Structures are given as structure tokens and as C-alpha cells.
UniProtKB/TrEMBL annotation:
<keyword id="KW-0808">Transferase</keyword>
<feature type="binding site">
    <location>
        <position position="339"/>
    </location>
    <ligand>
        <name>S-adenosyl-L-methionine</name>
    </ligand>
</feature>
<dbReference type="InterPro" id="IPR030390">
    <property type="entry name" value="MeTrfase_TrmA_AS"/>
</dbReference>
<feature type="compositionally biased region" description="Basic and acidic residues">
    <location>
        <begin position="8"/>
        <end position="25"/>
    </location>
</feature>
<keyword id="KW-0489">Methyltransferase</keyword>
<feature type="active site">
    <location>
        <position position="464"/>
    </location>
</feature>
<feature type="binding site">
    <location>
        <position position="437"/>
    </location>
    <ligand>
        <name>S-adenosyl-L-methionine</name>
    </ligand>
</feature>
<keyword id="KW-0408">Iron</keyword>
<dbReference type="InterPro" id="IPR030391">
    <property type="entry name" value="MeTrfase_TrmA_CS"/>
</dbReference>
<keyword id="KW-0479">Metal-binding</keyword>
<feature type="region of interest" description="Disordered">
    <location>
        <begin position="1"/>
        <end position="29"/>
    </location>
</feature>
<feature type="binding site">
    <location>
        <position position="389"/>
    </location>
    <ligand>
        <name>S-adenosyl-L-methionine</name>
    </ligand>
</feature>
<keyword id="KW-0004">4Fe-4S</keyword>
<dbReference type="InterPro" id="IPR010280">
    <property type="entry name" value="U5_MeTrfase_fam"/>
</dbReference>
<feature type="domain" description="TRAM">
    <location>
        <begin position="38"/>
        <end position="96"/>
    </location>
</feature>
<dbReference type="GO" id="GO:0070041">
    <property type="term" value="F:rRNA (uridine-C5-)-methyltransferase activity"/>
</dbReference>
<dbReference type="InterPro" id="IPR002792">
    <property type="entry name" value="TRAM_dom"/>
</dbReference>
Length: 510
């Protein structure tokens, strides 16, 4: 998953809950036995689970061999059927928990948890999920970043070559008090079922769409909107897109809900421009969806799993809806990247602001700024903020957001951060603080080099991928920075994802 903006959402979701078509048991069809591998495909084995992958699979050990077992939890001894094997690891399916040990297994409240795949951790108690997310961050920092972490054993950081530097503090994950019903956006694939048009999620490991009415991590308003749109489409005989033939009209229904204003948006993603009975459809949606402020159409005719096409227009109402985070208003257009968990976003951005330690006189760069969310958060506390982002529409939104909030000390540029930053450097812009919030693949090496040349006093790194974060922190450390604090934030409860914000300080200034 590379992009966070537009075509793919930050957390890679392509349905109301599910990650499209990903086969968790991938690699089937390989050899059924391999020299030096103690298990064979089809065999039932007992294994101890010693860890959890970020995909939520249990990491099992059978005679020293690693077997990833979905649904199995750390601390358990399970029986698993081997589904695929490779030289260094294999995959299995849990058939039985033999000994639950110290695991914190709970019964997943969602009735479709097993077939959906959108959540990976519902079977683990929430407090334990938060611990595992922190553990995942610590492991990456130690293994990939070779960083000494406070409170962790020396063995983990052996070979790090660190002298007497103070260890990195990794705080406990900031979780939600009520970790359900948090998502403000749903992307629902539409298809054919027994009774006609259906919409829900891609069944795990297949391209089949399963009808779904309830999703426990989705805000109820979104469920209500999706239900109303599906009913209206059925009533008017709108055809569903058929992924095999490329015929049929309605491909996706994308809905958003802004909790602070109550506004809702519906985007109909269609295979062609013409919508038969468009006015009746709009009328029914307006009648049945409270708070509806925007109905848009996006045309996507390509045979691709990518949700949106290039053409978007308003069918009724506004082209944006408004939401507020931490007292700042944001206009959100159909394809804008906007954090999906507003409650946790405030916590994440507030940490970023805290780590930036601004006094009001600083020049700040916000690289990978999206629609300017972090930039606007920082602007109140800085002299001047420069935001850079590769997607032109996002920068249009960012400028509009600055204007709505009457924030004048921000400037936005379109382009790749790694190309724009050297330009700014040439223009004599010397940031005191640089904030980066890159997509999953992390920062471009050229950007890291520029940061090391600019030598800001502080760097704040916001990341959705602990492994690329750890890689980049190592580069920054080698270039003279010290990672001080790391704060994991649970933006996506019950999924394997974890968001992290880190503070770094230039050693020469200590
Ligand atoms: N900070 C924002 C957005 C973070 S998402 C927020 O919290 O809302 C990461 C952003 O980086 C996306 O908007 C993506 O379009 C952008 N991006 C990806 N590659 C980039 C690059 N090379 N230069 C600048 N921006 C990039």
C-alpha cells in the first residue's frame, strides 16, 4: 500500500471493512514438502505461538520453523493445518486451541469477523491489542533501527554500536475509551447477489462481495447512509457493476460523516456517466439520509480494483462537507485524504505539536502535508509553516482550509517533498522544525539527505509503518539526530495497524 491519498485510503481499506481480495493464506500451490522444512502441506501440527505479525497472524514455532497461523494468539499452544510452506516460513490455519495459556482471547463481537478480514484483532482483548502494538513498534526500532529502547533487554539491541546515549522512550499506546464505531468513512463495493444489488465487503481471499448491513468499527450514520443508498438503488432498478463482464453501473458507494457538523456525503462511483432515474435517486437519498449535504458522482470505467476514476462532479448539494478537528475546520472533498478516526486524530496531532516544542518564533516545514491538517495545527504555535504535498487537489484543499480558518502564516506547495525541499533550501528557507508524515513506504532517501543538510533543531516523524520508520530513524541517527520519544497511537482499533509519532533532536544542539 503506497499512497495515502485518493486512490487508496491510508489504512488500505477498499470496502466497508475488508481489504480487497487479499489472500491471507497466500502462497498456496507451492511444493507440498521441502528439504530441511519439518512440516508438509496438509499436515496437522502442534505449535507454540510466540508473537503476532502486524497482519494479526500468530507467529508459531514448530521445531524451530516459523509458521504464521491466523487467529492464533501469543501464549497459546494450538493445532494448525499447514497450508503453504517456503524455505524460511510457512502459513497455517488454526484448527484448535490446545492450551490458551496467558493469551487474552475474547470472543469477537462481530458476527462476520471470520469472513470479512477488515479487522484482524477482534479476538484479542483491547488492552492486549494496545500492548502488542507497542511491542511491534519496539521490535522494529530495535531490530531494524538498531535503537536502544528504555526498559528493554540489552540482547535486543546487541550490535547497535550505541555507546552511552540515553535510550529511546517508547510510551504505552494511546488507545480509545470506546474502541468501536470510530470510522467516519466507508467504501462499499457493490455487486450482484441472490436478490439483486448487494453491497458490503469482499469475502476474505476472494473477489466475491458479501452483503453487509452492520460493521462495528463504522459510525452508525455511515451504515444508515449506505443502507439508504442501496435501498434507493434497488427501488429504481439501478444495475450493479459486474467485475467479470465489466457491465452494470454502480461500482462503489463511498460515504462520509462529519461528527462535529452532522454533515454527510455520498459518492456514487459509476461505470459510465449516465445514471438512469438520476433525479429520483437523488430525491430518495435526500429524503432518507439525515444531514445529507453533498451527493457526488465519480466515474470509473477502467477494469481495476482502484475505487475512484479521474472524473468527479456534484449531483446535488455542496462539493465538500465540513468537519472539525481540535477547533480547526476542514473542508473535505470526495477524494480528499482525511483521517478516518477523528477522536484519535486529535490525540495524534496534539502529540506532533507537543514534540515540535514551538514557541511562536519558528519556521516549520510539514512534508507530506495532505490537506494541511498538521500544518494548520502547527501554525498557531509557529512563526511560519510551509507545507508540501504531491497531489494538487490536496493542496487546493489545504489552501482552502487555511482560508476558512483565517490562518495566514502558512504556505503550501505542490510537488514531491524530496524535490521541493531543496528548492526551498536554495531560496534560503531554513526550518527550525521539520515534520514528516509519509505514506507506508516512508521518506524518500533524497528527502532524508536534504533534512540532514538543513539540520533543523527538531524533527517530528509521524508514521503509519513502524518498519520504514525504523529504517529512516537509523538514517537520521547516523546523520546526527537522536530519537528521544516515540508515541504509538491506536488510530485503527481491532486492525493490525498502528500509527506512531516520534521526536528527534539534533545532537549538536544538546
Ligand atoms: N499529514 C497529512 C497527510 C498524510 S498522508 C494528514 O495527516 O492528513 C501522506 C501524504 O503524502 C499523502 O497525502 C500523499 O499524497 C503524500 N505524498 C506521497 N508521496 C509524496 C512525496 N514524494 N512528496 C510529497 N507528498 C507525498
Amino acid at each position: 500500500m503506497s499512497g495515502k491519498y485518493g486512490k487508496r485510503s491510508k489504512d488500505g481499506r477498499d470496502s466497508m471493512r475488508g481489504t480487497k481480495g487479499e489472500n491471507k493464506f497466500g502462497g498456496r500451490g507451492g511444493a507440498s514438502s521441502l528439504a530441511g522444512v519439518p512440516v508438509a502441506v496438509g499436515q496437522r501440527v502442534e505449535c507454540e505461538i510466540i508473537g503476532l505479525t502486524h497482519e494479526g497472524e500468530g507467529v508459531g514455532r514448530v521445531e524451530g520453523y516459523t509458521l504464521f497461523v491466523r487467529d492464533a494468539l501469543p501464549g497459546e499452544r494450538v493445532r494448525a493445518e499447514v497450508l503453504s510452506i517456503g524455505k524460511s516460513f510457512g502459513r497455517g490455519r488454526m484448527t484448535e486451541v490446545l492450551d490458551a495459556g496467558v493469551s487474552r482471547r475474547v470472543s469477537p463481537p462481530c458476527p462476520i469477523y471470520d469472513s470479512c478480514g477488515g479487522c484482524q484483532l477482534q479476538h484479542l482483548g483491547y488492552a492486549e491489542q494496545l500492548k502488542w502494538k507497542r511491542r511491534h513498534v519496539v521490535d522494529n526500532l530495535a531490530r531494524i533501527g538498531k535503537l536502544p529502547v528504555a526498559g528493554e533487554t540489552r540482547e535486543m539491541i546487541e550490535g547497535s554500536g550505541e555507546g552511552e546515549r540515553p535510550p529511546v522512550i517508547v510510551h504505552p499506546t494511546i488507545g480509545m475509551d470506546e474502541p468501536w464505531r470510530y470510522r467516519n468513512k466507508a467504501q462499499v463495493p457493490i455487486g450482484f447477489g441472490d436478490g439483486g444489488l448487494i453491497g458490503g465487503f469482499y469475502e476474505m481471499g476472494s473477489n466475491d462481495i458479501v452483503e453487509m448491513d452492520a460493521c462495528l468499527i463504522q459510525q452508525e450514520e455511515n451504515e444508515e447512509t449506505v443502507r439508504a443508498v442501496k435501498e434507493a438503488a434497488r427501488l429504481l432498478g439501478v444495475s450493479a457493476y459486474n467485475r467479470a463482464t465489466g457491465r452494470g453501473l454502480l461500482r462503489h458507494v463511498v460515504v462520509r460523516h462529519a461528527r462535529t457538523t452532522g454533515q454527510r456525503m455520498v459518492v456514487l462511483v459509476t461505470n459510465g456517466r449516465d445514471i438512469p432515474h438520476a433525479q429520483e435517486l437523488i430525491g430518495l437519498i435526500r429524503e432518507r439520509v439525515p444531514g445529507i449535504a453533498s451527493i457526488c458522482q465519480n466515474v470509473q470505467t477502467a477494469a481495476t480494483p482502484v475505487v475512484f476514476g479521474d472524473e468527479t462532479h456534484v449531483l446535488w448539494g455542496e462539493e465538500v462537507i465540513y468537519d472539525e478537528i481540535g477547533g480547526i475546520a476542514f473542508a473535505i472533498s470526495p477524494r480528499s485524504f482525511f483521517q478516518v478516526n477523528p477522536e484519535q486524530t486529535v490525540r495524534l496531532y496534539s502529540k506532533a505539536v507537543e514534540y515540535a516544542a514551538l514557541t511562536g518564533t519558528e519556521t516549520v516545514v510539514d512534508a507530506y502535508c495532505g490537506i494541511g491538517t498538521i500544518s494548520l495545527f502547527l501554525a498557531k504555535h509557529a512563526d511560519r509553516v510551509y507545507g508540501v504535498e504531491i497531489i494538487p487537489e490536496a493542496i487546493e484543499d489545504a489552501r482552502r482550509n487555511a482560508a476558512i480558518n483565517e490562518i495566514a502564516n502558512v504556505e503550501f506547495a505542490v510537488g514531491a517533498a524530496e524535490l521541493v525541499m531543496p528548492r526551498w533550501q536554495a531560496e534560503g528557507i531554513t526550518p527550525d522544525v521539520i515534520v514528516v508524515d509519509p505514506p507506508r513506504k516512508g521518506c524518500d532517501p533524497a528527502l532524508i539527505s536534504t533534512m540532514l543538510e538543513l539540520k533543523p533543531e527538531r524533527i517530528v516523524y509521524v508514521s503509519c509503518n513502524p518498519s520504514t520508520l525504523a529504517r529512516d530513524l537509523r538514517l537520521l541517527e547516523d546523520g546526527g539526530y537522536r530519537t528521544v520519544e516515540v508515541q504509538p497511537v491506536d488510530m485503527f482499533p481491532h486492525t493490525g495497524h498502528v500509527e506512531v509519532v516520534c521526536s528527534l533532536i539534533y545532537k549538536g544542539l544538546e
